[in-house]
Write a structure and sequence with these properties.
Helix content is 42%, strand content 17%. The protein is an alpha/beta fold. Bound molecules: nicotinamide-adenine-dinucleotide. It catalyses: an aldehyde + NAD(+) + H2O = a carboxylate + NADH + 2 H(+).
């Protein structure tokens, strides 16, 4: 472990020298790196498909949609907007400072560390890298060891396609991450769990390094059966997709649980079952359309959630698990105990509790009484309920009548609040995340007021 710190200290010194050389500040360098990312994703597409299938059992269509396609879109968006983002903006000044002018100049932060997660190993590594490069930084990436084929491909491909003097990958697990955290970076961008987020923030505090924490939480979906104008068929398809369709439920903004009116719960459960069957067939494991659970530890954790008192008896659909394939069926639970772990911890898997309430308005208080989620979803066209949900709950984002889709919008900031993290990125927010907006003021010598200078006397106060 010490050897890694010792070894990497030298690399960090070199990376800082590269940053200080000014190379990464050049627009031409930033563009060449963004183009390098585009080439990497085009030319290594089949390797990426294979790695995502190997580590996560992701179908290549899902892999393209969630990782390759979104990264290509984001890199193109950054390329198209780079000139605008890099340009300084004029700022107004008070009359008292006449004659003078001012502007805001974005400057890169320096050498930044990106620590990423395994569930979208390419997307969650490259989205921050795109922002860091666009903003002119030098980058060190530490991908997750839990997706080893993806981690190794990231390391090889980044070495082949990007400027290796300024963008480096360090592979490894918690020990390697902690070794890196003992060094001084100019920014740390972390995606992962709340528990490790605390470790990252504590380590960063020692150097007063700014951090962005992209964490998780329990994202609720409020399903309002009294909504007058909703398309149940589309809503059910989107709910099923929002739960099981992105990395088999192992997604930070995937639906964690549903809140609905008690009297409609049987209808909802019936509809959910119908659309699960429509989507994944009678044998979901054979559909190849649901990613596997990342590893045995998480598989056993999910199984354990189902085995707690009162939880097993609440299963109304699915529930079978296949350890050799690390696969758990899409599972629906009706009113599991609220004090069971399944309702207290982030599920991060294909288990979907449906919690019933007398009225749908109670959902606002239900959500407010719990830690702030990364996303809140509302399947309703009832504008009053929408307003109550927007103003009565706090979350990183709120989306009505769909799920997860907000992640792909370059114009929307993505990030958490409270326990789901802080700091935001995507599109120009990624550029801002890795920049400092420096206030630059220029004064002239034409006018000068004596009252601003000592020695002080009361006459100067009267002026
Ligand atoms: P994790 O916190 O276990 O690991 C994340 C990263 O931290 C990995 O690179 C890992 O190697 C490193 N790490 C693990 N233990 C460490 C330690 N003790 N010290 C230093 N570094 C350590 O999280 P995970 O299992 O990769 O991901 C699951 C969590 O991440 C969930 O809570 C999920 O909601 C969240 N997540 C959030 C987002 C988001 O965009 N907000 C995206 C994906 C996942």
């Amino acid at each position: 472990m010490e050897a890694i710190v010792g070894g990497f200290e030298g690399d960090l010194k070199e990376l800082r020298e590269v940053f200080n050389s000014g190379k990464t500040r050049e627009a031409s360098w930033r563009k060449s790196q963004l183009q390098g990312i585009l080439s990497l994703f085009k030319e290594r597409e089949s390797d990426i498909f294979k790695a995502l299938n190997q580590d996560l059992g992701k179908h290549h269509v899902e892999a393209y949609r969630d990782e390759i396609g979104t990264v290509i879109k984001s890199a193109n968006y950054a390329l198209g907007n780079l000139k605008k983002w890099m340009s300084s903006k004029r700022a107004k000044l008070p009359l008292a400072s006449f004659p003078s002018s001012a502007k805001l100049v974005p400057e890169p932060l320096g050498v930044v560390l990106v620590i990423s997660s395994w569930n979208f190993p390419f997307g969650l590594s490259f989205e921050p890298i795109i922002g860091a490069i666009a903003a002119g930084n030098v980058v060190v990436l530490k991908p997750s060891e839990l997706a080893p084929t993806c981690s190794s491909l990231l390391a090889n491909a980044i070495r082949d396609y990007l400027d290796n003097s300024a963008v480096k990958v360090v592979e490894g697990g918690p020990h390697v991450a902690q070794s890196l955290l003992r060094l001084k970076f100019d920014k740390i961008f972390f995606t992962g769990s709340e528990k490790v987020g605390e470790i990252v923030m504590t380590a960063a505090a020692k150097f007063l390094t700014p951090v962005t924490l992209e964490l998780g939480g329990k994202c609720p979906a409020v399903v309002d059966f009294i909504s007058s104008s909703w398309d149940k068929k589309i809503a059910m398809k989107r709910i099923i997709w929002g739960k099981y369709g992105a990395c088999g439920g192992q997604a930070c903004i995937g639906i964690d649980y549903i809140l609905t009116q008690k009297k409609f719960a049987p209808t909802l459960v019936e509809l959910l079952q119908k659309y699960i069957k429509n989507t994944f067939g009678d044998n979901p494991m054979e559909s190849q359309s649901i990613a596997k659970i990342i590893n045995k530890k998480h598989f056993l954790r999910l199984k354990g959630l189902l085995e707690e008192p009162g939880v097993k008896s609440s299963i109304v659909y699915g529930g079978k698990s296949y350890e050799e394939n690390l696969f758990i069926e899409p599972t629906i639970l009706l009113d599991p105990p609220l004090d069971a772990s399944i309702m207290k911890e982030e599920i991060f898997g294909p288990l979907l509790p449906v919690i019933t309430l007398e009225t749908i308005e109670e959902s606002v208080e239900f959500i407010r009484a719990r830690p702030k989620p990364l996303a809140v979803y509302g399947f309703t066209n009832n504008e009053n309920l929408q307003k109550k949900m927007i103003s009565g709950t706090s979350s990183g984002c709120i989306t009505f009548n769909d799920a997860i889709i907000q992640y792909a919008a370059d114009t929307l900031p993505f990030g958490g609040v409270g326990g789901s993290g802080f700091g935001r990125y995507h599109g120009k927010y990624s550029f801002e995340n890795f920049s400092h907006e420096k206030a630059v003021m220029k004064r002239g010598y034409l006018i000068d007021f004596g009252f601003r200078y000592p020695p002080w006397n009361n006459k100067k106060l009267q002026l």
